[in-house]
Design brief:
Shape: globular
Radius of gyration: 32 Å
Number of strands: 35
């Protein structure tokens, strides 16, 4: 009796040399191929794995094994969310194979998950999809090619499911216990048992910290304008680092340098401190595997104080007769504040008197309170929307122009109060809605002389009541208010043309107290001597059928430079969040201040705005996955939620025709939203009978969906 295990073990060793796995440089088993169609339970495939990231460090993540009893096969994933989906689909949790790295560190190699005919799933360090019928279904992680400290040897075994079956109907089993392969199949005769192949992988035995970045704290007190060395260490060399600094204890961050190489485990950067006086300075560092990828490890310095060094001014190359104050931009003037009566918002307007400012700082105080900073505006801006006001509170505002060396003095103060929806003063004859003024008519724009140094914008009076006009300009960076006139002035001269080129666009609004008309038609002049027929937003990657709608989206200010190239690339969750927020702001006319940031993998303000409005959620309580591609059904959900947040009617006709045979593949949480987008001509099918809810969407199509939504609901 004692001889039987030894005989059986020898039998398995013999089978190991005779039955290697299909697709490798070994002898392929000769098994008759069954010609009957293979039917198996559908498995949910998600090629993107979810990394487990901890503060400051990257840890290895589990490689899960799941079992489908109906087909007697195994599936593998390192994504906890995909694991949950597979369990919902009927598979059972079969344990953890071992641990893999979620990022590619130097010397690591990818571990691919591949399948054949949707039936057999294997793991390989070689992409078999370039040959034969194998399909790559994503990378489950990264491993090291050789044995390393803390590693375990994961073996592969294969099992033919019944007598005479081909390798197309085979189950592959991965485990780091050599004897478990022998015991798992209970040793039935060949070819029904699990048989070890010659394939082995080196993985981690347990969850292991594989990368960490640590900052060396700066002195507790520093002097602005001076150079300081920011130093850091990492567990492993390689990758890229981003450095940022904050002057408000981490509420907002400014970039010092991006994508700096990290060739050693010890790194440093010589940073010239901003010449400011601040008591809550911090430095933050991010580590990422490569440029363009998301940051995955980080550290924040201690809080330190900085003091402005006024002596630095003595070393500036100041020519005789030039006042040192010339290094500060001229202060803005004519600040006015007007409260809206249709939304909780106060609009600020001012005159920009400088050409050297880097932006504007907006400050506000409530009645009886003290001033605090509430936001910023870009250089050359002349307006700002404060959408964080409370009803019946009197607010006083002031602004200053920021300079690269010194800031300007403060503007005059302006006061306004938002009283909520006030209809009574503007409801004649029992009308239920406020009467908005009509837009100006017959606008025109022309140079006043041959030097192209100033443009005269003029228009005719609209009918109805009004108190004045606002003039807007777009010189390539979006619409900005450049001035306003009284009700009797129907022209405006733009002299701010230095450094501009190409076509310059103008439009005019009529306003009556806090009510503003729709814009006039757009007029333009060309600083190049000829008009451009369309904006220069194409790089040759766009589809010809999409060009007109992409131009319309650009003119509607519903897109941005980050997605206006490589139009065929699949859009990410982060990129679509920016578009969804632009849609909300255009439909409501309101800006939104970002809310809390629960995510460890992003601080994008548009993502935080979308999260605050309920347009999007994270993939977990602390992760957003900004670089993940977004599916068609997910876009429908975000568009629907943006319209809900903007208080539009989102009723769905449940009895309406929905002619798509693949509708069962739409997730239950997205069915209502997909039907809504289809019924409102926002999203059509990919064919008369398919809508492909799980398909990733190119940038150009995502931009067009946002623009179609705006066209459908802007007039409501």
């Amino acid at each position: 009796m004692k001889k039987m295990p030894i005989i059986l073990l020898a039998f398995i060793i013999i089978m190991t040399s005779c039955l290697p796995a299909f697709g490798f440089d070994t002898i392929t088993p000769i098994i008759p191929i069954k010609t009957d169609p293979i039917i198996a339970t559908p498995i949910i495939i998600s090629p993107i794995f979810t990394a487990i990231f901890h503060t400051k460090a990257v840890y290895t993540t589990p490689l899960y094994r799941l079992y489908d009893s109906d087909s007697d096969k195994h599936s593998y994933t390192s994504s906890s969310s995909e694991k949950a989906d597979l369990i919902v689909a009927g598979l059972t949790d079969d344990g953890i194979v071992a641990y893999v790295s979620p990022v590619k560190l130097p010397g690591y190699i990818p571990l691919y998950r591949q399948e054949i005919f949707g039936q057999v799933e294997i793991l390989s360090t070689t992409k078999l999809s370039s040959t034969s019928w194998w399909t790559d279904t994503g990378t489950v992680g990264y491993i090291q090619p050789n044995t390393f400290t803390g590693s375990t040897k994961v073996h592969e075994s294969a099992k033919a499911l019944s007598e005479g079956e081909s390798f197309f109907n085979t189950s592959y089993y991965y485990c780091d216990d050599y004897f478990q392969h022998i015991l798992f199949g209970k040793l039935p005769k060949v070819p029904l048992g699990y048989n070890l192949t010659d394939k082995r992988f080196n993985m981690w035995k347990t969850s292991t910290k594989i990368q960490e970045i640590t900052l060396t704290d700066l002195p507790t007190s520093v002097t602005g304008g001076h150079k300081y060395t920011v130093s850091w260490t990492t567990l492993v060399a390689g990758g890229k680092v981003d450095l940022l600094y904050s002057m408000d204890n981490g509420s907002t961050w400014n970039t010092i340098i991006e994508n700096k190489d990290n060739p050693s485990t010890i790194g440093s950067y010589l940073w010239t401190m901003p010449n400011v006086t601040k008591s809550e300075m911090k430095v933050k560092i991010y580590w990422k595997p490569a440029a363009g990828e998301s940051s995955v490890a980080w550290d924040t310095s201690n809080t330190f104080k900085s003091t402005r060094d006024l002596i630095i001014m003595e070393f500036l190359p100041i020519k005789p007769g030039i006042d040192v104050l010339g290094f500060a931009p001229s202060k803005p003037t004519s600040l006015t504040a007007k409260a809206s009566i249709v939304s909780p918002q106060i609009n600020l307007y001012w005159t920009d008197n400088s050409s050297s400012e880097t932006g504007f700082s907006i400050e506000r105080k409530p009645n009886g309170g003290v001033y605090s900073k509430i936001g910023t505006a870009i250089a050359n801006a002349t307006s700002y929307k404060d959408a964080s006001v409370s009803s019946s509170v009197k607010y006083t505002y002031r602004i200053l122009a920021k300079g690269s060396i010194l800031n300007s003095g403060y503007s005059n103060e302006a006061t306004a109060t938002y009283y909520g929806m006030v209809l009574a003063p503007v409801i004649p004859d029992g009308l239920l809605h406020p009467i908005f003024p009509n837009p100006p008519v017959n606008p025109s724009a022309a140079f006043t002389d041959g030097s192209m140094s100033e443009v005269l914008i003029s228009w005719d009076s609209p009918s109805g009541d009004y108190t004045g006009f606002n003039v807007e300009k777009d010189s390539g960076s979006g619409w900005t208010v450049i001035g306003n006139t009284t009700e009797d002035d129907h022209d405006y001269v733009d002299v701010d043309l230095d450094g501009l080129s190409g076509e310059i666009f103008y439009r005019i609004y009529t306003y009556d107290e806090a009510l503003t008309s729709s814009p006039s038609s757009t007029v333009s002049v060309s600083l190049d001597g000829e008009m451009e027929e369309e904006p220069d937003i194409f790089d040759g990657t766009q589809s010809s059928w999409a060009e007109s709608e992409l131009i319309e989206a650009y003119e509607n200010e519903l897109t941005y430079p980050g997605v206006m190239y490589d139009y065929g690339r699949a859009i990410t969750r982060e990129e679509f969040c920016v578009l969804a927020v632009k849609l909300y702001e255009k439909l409501t006319g309101m800006g939104v201040i970002p809310g809390e940031d629960p995510f460890v993998d992003t601080n994008n303000p548009d993502i935080l705005i979308a999260y605050k409005l309920g347009i999007v959620k994270g993939i977990s309580a602390t992760e957003f996955a900004p670089a993940n591609n977004i599916t068609r059904q997910e876009m429908c959900v975000m568009i629907y939620r943006a319209l809900v947040a903007a208080r539009y009617d989102t009723t769905v006709d449940t009895m309406a025709a929905f002619p798509f045979t693949d509708s069962p593949s739409i997730a239950s949480w997205a069915m209502n939203e997909v039907k809504f987008c289809y019924q409102n001509s926002i999203m059509n099918g990919t064919s008369p009978t398919t809508i492909d809810p799980l398909l990733n969407t190119p940038r150009e199509q995502a931009i067009i969906l946002i623009n179609r939504t705006y066209d459908s609901f802007n007039s409501q």
